[in-house]
Amino acid sequence: MKTILSVENLIKKYKNFKAVDDLSFDVKKGEILGLLGPNGSGKSTTINCILSLLKFESGKITIFGCEMRPDAYDIKKDIGVVFQEVAVFEELNVIDNIDYFCGLYIKDKEYRKKCIDDAIKLVGLEDFKKFYPKQLSGGLLRRLNIACGIAHKPKLVFLDEPTVAVDPQSRNNILDGIKKLRDNGATIIYTTHYMEEVEILCDRVIIIDKGKIIASGTGDELKELSKIEEKVTVEIDSLDEKILEEIKQFKNVDEATYNNGILFITYKKGKNNLSSLIDYLKKVDVHYDKIYSERPTLNDVFLYLTGKELRD
Amino acid sequence: MTVFKTFSQVLNKYKATVLMYTVMLVLFGGLNFKTSDNNVNFTASKPDVLIINEDENIGITKDFIDYLSEYTNIKDIENNEDSINDALFYRDVNYIIYIKPNFRESILSNSPNKDEQFKQLISSSDRTIVEIKTTGDYQASIADMLVNKYLHLADIYSNTFEDENEIINHIQKTLSLEVETELTSKVDTNTLSQVTFYYNFLSYSVLAGCVYVICLILSSFKNKEINKRTIISSMNYKSFNLKLLLSNCLFAIVLWLIYIILGFLLVGSIPTNYLIIYIINSFIFTICSVTIAFFISNLINNKNAINGIVNVVALGSSFLCGAFVPMEWLPDFVLKIAHVLPSYWYIKTNELLKGVEVFNSITLKPIITNMLVLIVFIIAFVVLTNIVTKLKLKK
Lengths: 312, 395
Hints:
The structure holds two protein chains of two kinds. Chain A contains eleven helices and 14 strands. Chain A is of the alpha/beta class. Chain A folds into two domains: 3-224, 3-Layer(aba) Sandwich (Rossmann fold), CATH 3.40.50.300; 227-295, Alpha-Beta Plaits, CATH 3.30.70.980. In chain A, the strands form three sheets. A six-stranded mixed sheet of chain A has the order 6-7-8-3-9-10, with helices on both faces. In chain A, strands 2-1-4-5 form a four-stranded antiparallel sheet, covered by helices on one side. Chain A is elongated, with a radius of gyration of 23 Å. By secondary structure, chain B is mostly helical. Chain B has two domains: 2-38 and 188-394, no CATH class; 48-176, abc type-2 transporter like fold, CATH 3.40.1710. In chain B, helix 9 runs parallel beside helix 12 (272-299), helix 11 packs antiparallel against helix 12 (272-299) and helix 12 (272-299) runs antiparallel to helix 15 (342-354). The longest helix of chain B is centred in the C-terminal third of the chain and has 34 residues, at 361-394. The chains are: A alpha/beta, B mainly alpha.
């Protein structure tokens, strides 16, 4: 598959602090690449370097096969960016805001009008065309922010945490919009610290911490890095220490803890772990309220790799 | 067109502010035209004089009193010390002249000390043939001038002629001579004063309008996040900045044109050479206001702070430089401070222009110098803006 973006040995320093430390990765045509990492891990700095908004110490950035520079307008015309902060004019309504940002790329009035309509449809702002930003809710404002960034139908889209502080309805709408963008042929780089979004959206994930790539691959590949395969949670009023010790001796159990009425067991691998546990609890006559099993998340991977939570 | 179109749309949001400054200009500038007295005639002022004649009211003494009666208002006040002092204190009279008993005799005598006597008479208050008490105001000065004029003539003719009637005839003949005066200026000075006031006030409206509107618009365009979007777009950033600059200049020029047309409507026509200089001066000042607005907008991006900045910059400099009150009413130290403000040089040009009768290299030199100072301000603000921009980019 054709490489759309290539980052080689990127280093960005703020005085003595390395915000981006020898970062290298490629993005293939049509894929959604997730840049996952906690706040301050260097995701936004990486994007700003790629977009030539920040100067960097060393490294090479190639987009569409050409080296990216601040004056590379031929490359820029096919790039769309949605920043974390909402960037719209307070004085303009929805349609005029999109028209302005689209107009920075497209001169043809008729084509621009079509692009604006498509963008409004994509983010679901049809009923708010004449609304001013002040009249929009946080979620709608985020959708407008996205529409302004992608109205000119870019081939490469950077989405920098576009769902921060957004209500669930708007979040779903935004995620659907991003999928549609990909379906229309765009390549997307999506930065976030919400692992659920990455798991839903991304074909490939790069996990960044302290400016370095600590893992990369598909969601499943990354989860394999984690030593656990299944997590089981049981709500039990009281549990004897002896029973807990016996559970720890079960086949495949990695760890078992009991705290505040919750029994939490992690399994390295294996099948029928849950049914075996239920049978045992019946046998020893332990009553439980709820019991459920989960697959490990990227947060578990991150926890495994760094020893800390993604949202720390 | 995208930049200009959005500029117009954002500007449209601030039209009420522009309208407010225009209404202020029309109200204050226009009100000045309506309330000003258009009468350019003048009448000679007659001081109130009390004559206490201790000499005989005959001959040259009578002629002197008759002469004073013609050009002053003779007051009748009781001849005692208290009444006279009260009259002076309460300004019932401006001038009291005591004609000494030897007045007539001294003038007509061929005393060898006569010249010396007259010198004293004219230069000193301790006079030998007349004694004077005055309020010291300009009315008293007029009376003093009349007295001195008569006594000078009496001195000249008494040296030449012996006969009292002959002396009186010559004095009267000389005093009756009138100098024909003609106003060389073809300009209605009152109208010029009104136009000057209008153009002085215009400095406030233009400066406040430009700083307020341009700063607000630029704070939108140069908002950190919006600016990032602009930088990463396919529009050349230099071209974008140029379009933005031209849009701002166009706004300022349209604003200036409206104010010039309003000036025409309010004041009517004035001689072309005056008008051209007023227009050129205000145009240079408008461009200077644009550069000031650009400089401020580079320093401050907070929309809430802009209102305060307008008050400090526009209102402050207008007060300090005499946009609302005549420059001559301002204390010297205020005017010295005002030298560092462009408004001072703009208003100074208007004030100089008001006093110009003939246009030549001498009268135009200070006006052109002031305009050049304004141009230096424009260059300085452009350079400062560039420095601030580069420093911000470095950051």
